[in-house]
Every structure is written in structure tokens, then in C-alpha cells.
């Protein structure tokens, strides 16, 4: 009896320690994941209130939260933000292969523009024992894995953009019908100013934010952040992270 109790006491601290280690090692993903959930919940609550206000103005009955979460209005608002974010990362991942910004930690060093050599990238015969398996694999597997980050970001962007266009068409047509006007086809909606206004206002903000980060980080510092150079690093130091 005592031995069993002792074993349980030993196991509990071990589980607690593993949980703490997991939280410590994955704090960035967990913190942003939690913030994302809270932001979506807040958007859903505020968006439903705004949506119901418009329905009441048009003489229609308001909807409950589940109905709003499955509506095209909520879906288009979510997907139009997602697609702009993934476009930002997709472009930045591929553009920074070839373009550099002297003095920015967000850039490679000025002499390393391009895909770099197999030795520098630790692929093929230069792969280490702890390298991902496809880094050493020949042919298409290495080629795909060598571009997998940008490809996945690009695919997610395209899926979100397509989802935005479909749900945007549905939301636009709902508004058309409430105003007793004819709905439009998906292909016609893609040519509408309303679609491109929603799209481009997100794209321009993301591109501005990336450009600002690349330039501001040349001269400004954030001690301890990998997105910043060390506080005492020279302004001209490029590709150096704190």
C-alpha cells in the first residue's frame, strides 16, 4: 500500500514537470494560439451585433450566434484577413531568397542572395545525422522539401483567397436580395469593385507592415528578441539576430 502511494507521488511531479516543460518549450505557439481564439471569439460577438443591427434596420429578424458563425458574412470577414496574412508570409519567404536589405536582421547577409550552396543548406551529401530525412533524399523529395515552407504558405493563401471570393459572393448576393436586386455570379463578383476594395485594403496593410519591420529593425532594437539585432550591433550589420 505504501509502495503504491509512493509510486503515485513520484508520477505526479513527473507529469507536472513534463507539462511545465511542454508549456515552456511551446510558449510562443500556445500564447498566439490562445490570443487567436480570443480574437476570433471577440470578432464573432462584435460581428454578430453589427450584423443583427443591419438586419433589424432592414426589417428582418436577428440571428443567434451559431447561425452567424455559419453565415457567409462571418466567413468572408475571417478569410479575407487570413489570405492577406498568408500572402505576406508567402511573398516574404520567396522574395528574401533573392533580395536583401542592408542592416536588417530580417534579411540575409548581402553576399548570400540566392538559394545558396548544398553545403550551406546542409542538403544531399552535406546533410547531418539530425537533418530532416528529405534533406538528404535525392530527386523530387529534396526539391519539394527545399521549398515546402513557401509552397504551403502559398497554397493556404490561395485556398483562403478562393474561400473569400466564394463567401464574399454569397454575402454580396444576400445584400442584393434584401435590396430586391438581382444576385451576381461568382465570376462577375470577382470583377466588382467591392471585392477588390476588401482585398487590396488588406494587402496594402500587410505589405506596409513588412516593409516597416525590415527598415525599422535597421536602426531600432528590442533587447532579447530574435526579430531584433543585439542592442550594441552596428546599424550596417545584416542578418544578425539578438
Automatic annotation (TrEMBL):
Residue spans of biased composition, Basic and acidic residues class? 115-131
| Disordered, as annotated region | 105-131
Q: Which InterPro entries match?
A: DUF6766 (IPR046657)
Q: Which residues cross the membrane?
A: 28-46, 143-164
Any Pfam family the entry gives: DUF6766
UniProt KW keywords? Membrane, Transmembrane, Transmembrane helix
Put simply, this protein is called Uncharacterized protein
Origin organism of this chain?
Answer: Streptomyces cinnamoneus
Amino acid at each position: 500500500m505504501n509502495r503504491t502511494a509512493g509510486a503515485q507521488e513520484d508520477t505526479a511531479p513527473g507529469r507536472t514537470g513534463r507539462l511545465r516543460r511542454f508549456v515552456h518549450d511551446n510558449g510562443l505557439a500556445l500564447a498566439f494560439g490562445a490570443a487567436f481564439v480570443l480574437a476570433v471569439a471577440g470578432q464573432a460577438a462584435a460581428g454578430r451585433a453589427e450584423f443583427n443591427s443591419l438586419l433589424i434596420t432592414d426589417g428582418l429578424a436577428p440571428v443567434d450566434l451559431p447561425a452567424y458563425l455559419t453565415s457567409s458574412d462571418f466567413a468572408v470577414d475571417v478569410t479575407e484577413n487570413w489570405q492577406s496574412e498568408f500572402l505576406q508570409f508567402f511573398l516574404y519567404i520567396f522574395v528574401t531568397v533573392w533580395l536583401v536589405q542592408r542592416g536588417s536582421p530580417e534579411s540575409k547577409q548581402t553576399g548570400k542572395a540566392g538559394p545558396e550552396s548544398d553545403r550551406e543548406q546542409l542538403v544531399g551529401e552535406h546533410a547531418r545525422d539530425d537533418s530532416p530525412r528529405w534533406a538528404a533524399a535525392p530527386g523530387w523529395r529534396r526539391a519539394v522539401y527545399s521549398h515546402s515552407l513557401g509552397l504551403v504558405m502559398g497554397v493556404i493563401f490561395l485556398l483562403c483567397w478562393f474561400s473569400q471570393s466564394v463567401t464574399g459572393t454569397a454575402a454580396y448576393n444576400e445584400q442584393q436580395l434584401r435590396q430586391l436586386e438581382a444576385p451576381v455570379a461568382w465570376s462577375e463578383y470577382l470583377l466588382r469593385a467591392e471585392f477588390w476594395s476588401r482585398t487590396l485594403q488588406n494587402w496594402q496593410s500587410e505589405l506596409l507592415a513588412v516593409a516597416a519591420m525590415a527598415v525599422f529593425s535597421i536602426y531600432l532594437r528590442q533587447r532579447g528578441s530574435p526579430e531584433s539585432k543585439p542592442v550594441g550591433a552596428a546599424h550596417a550589420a545584416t542578418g544578425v539576430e539578438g
